[in-house]
Amino acid sequence: MKVLVINAGSSSMKFTLFSMANNTVLAKGQFERLGTDKPNMIYKRLSDGLKFEGIVPVRNLEEALKRVCAKLVDPADGVMKDLGEIVAIGHRVLLGGEKITKPVKVDEGVKEIIREYIPLGPLHNPANLAGIEACEAAMPGIPNVAVFDTQFHMTMPPEAYLYAIPTEYYEKYGIRKYGFHGTSHRYVTLATAEFLGKKPEDVTLITCHLGNGCSMAAVKNGKVIDTTMGLTPLEGLMMGTRSGDLDPAVVIHLIELGHSTKEVDTILNKKSGLYGVGGINSGDMRDMINAAEGGNEQAELALKMFARRVVKYVGAYYVLLGGADALVFTGGVGEYSVPMRKRITSQLGALGLKLDDERNKECFGKPGVISTDDSKWKMIVMPTDEELMIATDTVNTLGLKK
């Protein structure tokens, strides 16, 4: 049984083809810089390490998907004889509001709801929808399933998801905290429970998805009671290019200074965070650490700000949860940035946590405990696998048997 997972963005498309019999990846890759004159395709076959990378002239996402399909069935480079071997396609979708709170087979009604929430997800929802429609055109008859980023966070109580503004704005317009990265937080919750030898309903965790986008979740007995991202993925932690939390009056002031709402959106989403503070024309954590180690004071300030905000939320969530079994790091930064994990964890001594430096170095992109044996609770690195979670949800939603 083969399931294709698609994660379509505004200028990119990631794809992963799974054999669900043993949850193995057959092929994966992505298109980058879609919409430019140099769209780049990366294709990897996992069985023997075959890799293709190069500029492939496509004009849009639909053409990119056709190239992917051709590669998957190519006699020399492919992994199957016919596209008909794919039984279903799973899609990462940003937001379905309160109208869709679980994975769902795509039909016209589902697509209409995705369109309805474009104003709250102007970068993601249109691209996610385009990915679905491209698959419908390229592989007619194969069912598509939408898996929403917000799903795992729908267990938050009203005191967590409501904003302290007039309730009419929630009732009329759905303005509330939705939370994102839910597929990742759910995967690492399940994986960490298994790692600890417990059932998901028996674990209480603080999960930290740290990458270019960053979010945290407070998970009590396997269910989210709070998360850092809000109405959009802009709220919460400092990120690669996003500001995270700030005084709402900053937005008002920027507009009064003459910036349009579109310009303010660009400033806060694409020109802030590490990129905006670090002064090195990059929002990449690796670049920022290298610059700081080279004596760049602005880069050092950006790293201090990033770590401080994570630490602040760890403290808040620990109290909300009434204690926790583990603090879990995932995402590109969480899994691979040994220096940033040290910056964060070195400030958590008041909660009874101690970092084991050697364990921290050893856990480079692989699961493991990085706290000392005498820590009050554990700190764990747990690589995420959102694609496998989406593929699994797709199979379960359609009632398919492996």
Provide tags for this entry:
about 400 residues, alpha/beta, Nucleotidyltransferase, domain 5, 6-stranded mixed β-sheet, 15 helices, 14 strands, about 40% helix, Aliphatic_acid_kin_short-chain, metal-binding, ATPase_NBD
Written overview of the protein:
Helices cover 38% and strands 19% of the residues. It is an alpha/beta fold and 402 residues long. It folds into two domains: 2-148, ATPase, nucleotide binding domain (Nucleotidyltransferase, domain 5, 2-Layer Sandwich); 198-386, ATPase, nucleotide binding domain (Nucleotidyltransferase, domain 5), CATH 3.30.420.40. It has an eight-stranded mixed beta sheet, sandwiched between helices. It is globular and about 60 Å long. The N and C termini lie close together (6 Å).
